[in-house]
Amino acid sequence: MKCFLLVIHSGYEVVQGQNFACNFDANNLCQWTNAKGSDNLDWTLHRGATSSGGTGPPSDHTSGHGYYIYLETSGAIRTGSKAQLQSPNFNINRGQRKCLSLWYHMYGPNVGYLNVYLKKNGVLGRPIWRQNGNKGNRWIQGKVNIRTNSNLRNALIVIEGTKGSVGARGDISIDDIQVTNGPCGQLGQSTVSPGATPSPSSVTCDFESSNLCEWKNDKTDNFDWTWKSGSTSTTNTGPTNDHTTNTASGHYVYIEANGHRQGAKARLIAPSYSGRSSTCFQFYYNMHGQHIGTLSVYKKTSRGLGTPIWSLSGEQGTGWQFGQVSIRGGSAYSVVFEAARGSGNQGDIAIDDPKMFTGSCPKRGYCNFEKDFCGWTNSVTDQFDWIRNKGTTGSTGTGPTHDHTLGTRGTGYYIYIEASAPRARGDTAQITSEVFPPSQQPYCLQFWYNMNGNAIGTLTVYATANGVQTPLWQLSGQQTGQWNFGRISVQSPKTAFKCSSCVTNNHHDTTDYHLEDNSRQNHCSRESTVM
Q1: CA-wise closest residue to 284 among 204, 226, 346
Q2: Which CATH architecture has domain 212-358?
Q3: 424, 505 Cβ separation under 8 angstroms
């Protein structure tokens, strides 16, 4: 599930008299260069539409008939392949601030990530800015503040694109790069490319722009949603990072519970959309705090809000959670988020990365990992992550040769954790499902697992409801080298709940865990009893 990535190398002061500006219209990369040795693809100069249909821009951003650069994702390109574009070396002193501005185009169902890094002393480090997924057929401006706590020499800006999910419709394009002195100003408006028509993607937003992609606060409610980065102003509630970039510099929107009465409501309204086809609306939310109220989603028409089409109340844990709801087509409507303030100040509710696309939502609870993680999300409070992979893993003597779904060598996908160095004994990796509603009947979680290696640790499955995590199933040590079947009942949950799979590492160079074919039904005919 890789994608294009924009990387900036740590610490940088623009070379005297230069701002690294490039609109690519001279059919060259200006002062920028494709990296050598650290990637396996190149950014390509191009004019007009890209070679793959349903992805890429119809024209450049600068003039509509000039050049831009893009990463071509069709053909025999492996997921995870990357292309890096780097700036000239530059210096930056402690306390100085610079702003990187660029316009990017991320259109198509297979789009991956676009990240920005500041490369310091030859080390790429972590991204300081990130975008991912389908943003619609439009050019969007991104601005990244660059700062350092020490004097740096020979820093670099690197733009890195990585191949997204399987499929040819994942091109990412960049145009009009510039670096200026001082902090970043206001972002430009998102624009629909020439010749493009409005689509459900107009609802898609990562909230990195202060204009919120034309989402608007309702004027008839009690208070407003607030644009925010980092932690909220009240302790023990709200997120610490955004969902898009998973950094304190990324942005989201939230309601501040402090200063408002119980039951007060704030509504955020998406741009209007009209279409005959059904759509799927997906988003991420954070509902952490002992006084959390209710988050609801409405389909607002000319008749008003009506009843919620999705709703959730109470503490849901510290991390970002995934939500989705199918919406029937028809006359014009707007998607509306409504947050109701809970019983106290520790009740901040946040949302990020809403998106809408034509078609039905993926089946709730089922995932074979062939396209993506299907709403399962890696925890931000553990030590490492589950990875989507096909074929063999990176370690010898451990892991499967193929997935369970397709059963053919190297063809299908599964998720796994790589337990070799630098992982240490006791490190954990946790991945969590979307939230499931209360039910009068038991739920059944079914999955396939592979625990193959010389020093296997522990695989645990939990159910979490009202912020309380309860272990349901646990298995430790070397199992067979084949895929094994697990099945667990979640007995008649009275409140919304979610499931998570957690691995505790036993520290060995040949230890991998793998999960595949997660599914959920209303009844387990036979249950695994391992614990």
Answers
A1: 204
A2: Sandwich (2.60)
A3: yes
How far is residue 416's CA from residue 516's CA, in Å, rounded to a whole number? Answer: 9
Cβ neighbours for 18, distance < 8 A, ≥ 6 positions apart? 31, 88
Contact 508, 397 (CB under 8 A): no
Q: Which CATH number applies to 4-195: 3.40.50.300, 3.40.50.2000, 2.60.120.200, 3.40.1000.10?
A: 2.60.120.200
Q: Give average pLDDT by consecutive 10-residue segment, the chain, 531 residues.
A: 33 45 91 86 89 83 87 81 86 84 87 85 84 81 84 86 81 90 61 40 81 90 95 94 82 95 96 85 93 96 92 86 88 94 96 88 78 75 80 68 74 78 77 77 84 79 80 82 83 65 58 60 53 39
3-state secondary structure 279-348: EEEEEEEEECCCCCCEEEEEEEECCECCCCCEEEECCCCCCCEEEEEEECCEEEEEEEEEEECCCCCCCC
Which pTM value belongs to this model?
0.52
C-alpha 436/C-alpha 107 separation (Å) is: 30
SS (H, E, C) 483-523: CEEEEEEECCCCCCEEEEEEEECCCCCCEEEEEEEEEEECC
The closest of 516, 513, 512 to 396, measured between CA atoms, is: 512
Residue 15 CA from chain centroid, whole number: 34
CA 55 to chain centre: 19
In the sheet with 279-287, reading across from the earlier edge strand, the strands are 226-229, 251-255, 349-358, 279-287, 321-327
CB under 8 Å to 529, separation ≥6 — which residues? none
Domain 377-521 has CATH 2.60.120.200: yes
Q: Reduce the DSSP state of residue 416 to 3 states and report it.
A: strand
The one-letter amino acid code at 159 reads: I
Question: Is the backbone peptide bond immediately before 422 cis, with ω within 30 degrees of 0?
Answer: yes
